[in-house]
Specification:
Radius of gyration: 22 Å
Strand order of the largest sheet: 2-1-5-4-3-6-7
Number of strands: 7
Oligomer: single chain
Structural class: alpha/beta
Distance between the termini: 45 Å
Order of helices and strands: HHHHHHHEEEHHEHHEHEHEHHH
Helix content: 40-55%
Shape: globular
Amino acid sequence: MLQARRLGTELLVGVHSDEDILENKGPTVMTLAERLYVVHGDDITSDSAGHDCYRFVKAAGRFHVVKRTPGISTTDLVGRMLLCTKNHFIKSLNRSLDGDEGPGSPKERKDVGEEMSQRIRDYASDQTGLHPGVWVQSWTGPSMETEHSSNDPQGGSCATLVDGIHPKRGQRIVYVDGGFDLFSSGHIEFLRQVVKAEETLCRQAGWYEDASVQRRRANADGDDYAPFYIVAGVHDDEVINYWKGVNYPIMNIYERGLCVLQCRYVDSVVFSAPFTPSKEYLTNFPFGAPDAVYHGPTAFMPLTYDPYIAAKGLGIYREIGTHVFQDVNAGEIVQRILRSRQMYEERQKKKGEKGAGEEVVRRREHLEEEAAALEKARAAVRS
């Protein structure tokens, strides 16, 4: 969609119904209501009769193909779920971007790293797809502490990967963090609720009053801006796998980060953010300490301790309440795949992918059961 957006001044996106997808491609992983939050490249599909779905648009001379982002497709993700593979994990994103980590020869790693870096720059662009947008940073320091005292020094610092729009005068700095695996309506609704909470707070503080608007416009060349600046920290693969097990995350940190970069509610992304945001981490951001740290409703990773003690101690911790998409997370999506495994197996075979087989699927189910038991034990310890 980024490439398509760059072709004109407006982009219209059509979303297919559940029924049409089931008939022509196979079962959906998410419902229409869920997909409307997360909205064709060069992998042109055919309908149930084997005809090109875009034949009429092509005949009218109004069809344009853009290259699909390599390596990130529903087929790939379903394969990872069914086969329990971990070869998509990235140990160090910075080393991968520099070409020092990953498969292949030094030159191949270098080329892949440059391609990855360019894609991050592309995805960090503004809503036109042409100008700087999201400020992208990478945390270089401990990120794997699991029961680390959140008031102890962690060391480390944030380094800029892609410069973007910085916070403006008077904006509240808002921090959120997470795995954002299989980025979906659950994540997007959480971020939207954060925006709504901040809008309400700032409205009460008079941000939207005419006099305040006029003062901002006088200092910003006539343009007004939002009262908040949202920073999203994305955890490493190793961190998520420690807590969730099996082969989570299904998407690696690079893929998950690209999804977060494209979300309209996010102004800055911090790759490899520590799982426990310590006082030192929170108070040493390049844009200053956050005014609020938000966390949403989740049962996806039951913990044995509270990683937000520092934020609570600083009096900046906030919670978002329940919402309609709160249960749409990576674990739920994987369970949907497993429940409809036979249909997805047929879909994979049609795309020339290797089937999982009964033994492999049973292994996945067994690993999920083990992970659930571990989560239950951890929850009991914490309670």
